[in-house]
From TrEMBL:
Gene Ontology molecular functions: SNAP receptor activity; SNARE binding
Segments traversing the membrane: 214-234
Topology versus the membrane: Single-pass type IV membrane protein
Annotated organism of origin: Asparagus officinalis (Garden asparagus)
Entry GO CC: endoplasmic reticulum membrane; ER to Golgi transport vesicle membrane; Golgi apparatus; late endosome membrane; SNARE complex
Localization: Membrane
Protein name: t-SNARE coiled-coil homology domain-containing protein
Highest rank taxon of the organism: Eukaryota
Pfam families: Sec20
InterPro entries xrefs: NPSN/SNAP25-like_N_SNARE, Sec20_C, T_SNARE_dom
Family: Belongs to the novel plant SNARE family.
Domain T-SNARE coiled-coil homology: 142-204
Keyword Transmembrane helix: yes
């Protein structure tokens, strides 16, 4: 195939498919020499993975060919279509060979496309694709692209919903963070107020204690004075308290005595 008339993407895909076909050919040749059933089953699974990858590349090749149709000549388009059909037929030959080995090993668990029913269905699709016209292949490809677009739209919607939920969660977390900051500030203010109130209560307690001491002393003084007055009233001739100012007995009798002496 002349690679100069096709794009680099198509040439790269074709090269990958060719490498896989060579690996499949060598693998099946080696598989014929293997006698151990378990080892043969493992190698057959490896070859099945290569066929699965080859089918995926053929689909990519077909998609790239459709994208290049408007930019290439009719001869080039026909050449690419023939190349695709050739790839499909070669892959079908390996699929049939794989079925033959799988049947001989009685390993129905070995599948080409993830599960027994899905594998048989996909293999039949590959076989039918060889008999489809270009228009049928294009229609089938367009249908698959529509389904892919719908799946992409659904995925975009899921991503959009996820982003919205993430934004709402971030906003809620931000609001909660601000609320926690306000609560911390209020707790700091309350703690400061409690410390200030405690200090004030201590000062008031000290003042009250001092006032109580003063009051106690005044009470003792008043009680002492009252006691002296009572004693003086009860015993006015008590010499122990006659010299106390205001409590000494009246000096009238002494003055009278001095007057009498003057008269004589």
């Amino acid at each position: 195939m002349d690679l100069s008339v096709i794009s680099e993407d198509l040439a790269e895909i074709e090269g990958q498919i060719s490498d896989l076909f060579r690996a499949l050919s060598n693998g099946f040749q080696k598989l014929e020499k293997v006698k151990d059933p378990n080892r043969r089953s493992r190698q057959l699974e490896e070859l099945t993975d290569k066929m699965r990858e080859c089918k995926r590349l053929i689909k990519n090749f077909d998609r790239a060919v459709k994208e290049e149709e408007g930019r290439t000549t009719a001869d080039t388009n026909k050449m690419l279509s023939d190349k695709k059909q050739s790839m499909i037929k070669e892959l079908n030959s390996y699929v049939a060979l794989k079925k033959q080995y799988a049947s001989s090993l009685d390993t129905k668990r070995v599948d080409l496309f993830d599960g027994p029913s899905e594998a048989d269905h996909d293999e039949n699709n590959v076989l039918l694709a060889a008999n489809m016209s270009n228009q049928q292949l294009m229609d089938n490809g367009n249908r698959m692209m529509d389904e892919t677009d719908q799946a992409i739209e659904r995925s975009k919607k899921v991503v959009e919903d996820t982003v919205n939920v993430g934004a709402e969660t971030a906003a809620a977390l931000k609001a909660q963070t601000e609320q926690m900051s306000r609560i911390v500030n209020e707790l700091d203010s309350i703690h400061f107020s409690i410390k200030k109130a405690t200090k004030l209560v201590k000062e008031i307690g000290r003042q009250v204690a001092t006032d109580r001491c003063i009051m106690a002393m005044l009470v003792l003084i008043v009680i002492g004075v009252i006691a002296i007055i009572i004693v003086k009233i009860v015993n006015p001739h008590n010499k122990a308290i006659r010299d106390i100012p205001g409590l000494a007995p009246p000096a009238q009798s002494n003055r009278k005595l001095l007057w009498d002496l003057n008269e004589t």
